Amino acid sequence: DDKDITSLLLRLVKEQSAPEIDIEEFDGDPMNFQYFRSIFRETVENKIDDPRGRLTRLIKYTSGEAKELVKPFINDKPEFGFNNAMKLLEKQYGNPHKLLASYRKEIKQMQKIRPGDATAYRRLFNFLIKCQSLEYDGTASPLDSPDIICMVLSKVPSHLQDGWNRNVMRIRRSQAREP
Fold it and tell me: Rounded to two decimals, what is the model's pTM?
């Protein structure tokens, strides 16, 4: 039908005129794997059906240890190479336990924020947003655990810790629940 062909052509013209998305290389940091995986799916896997083409782009957009992990799959049969390489990356860098360990390490390495240090507060905010997006076996973020919250709280000035504790006590008394 002419309407279907016209709408298909319009969609193709729109897609072709959209700015090209530049994929950042994945360097093996587990905290960046979910982001890389999502962007790679959108820009490569959804547009390229050829497994060899997918694999060569996967090699191109990885670096360091991650690249060394996927490069040998270029010698596999094309129909297996990409899938095997991506499975290995997911196992190595998408492993929830390794990911949690990376987040914990990042929190531990943070310097305590001095009062009035807007840049440090912004970095902490950005980190917390990243933590909030973390999924773990389809459940809420395990970074919501009391020990992680205490670790994060230890990075802010004392007056903010005191305010947090007052709010916690108020919520526990008034709502009989954990905040």
Answer: 0.71
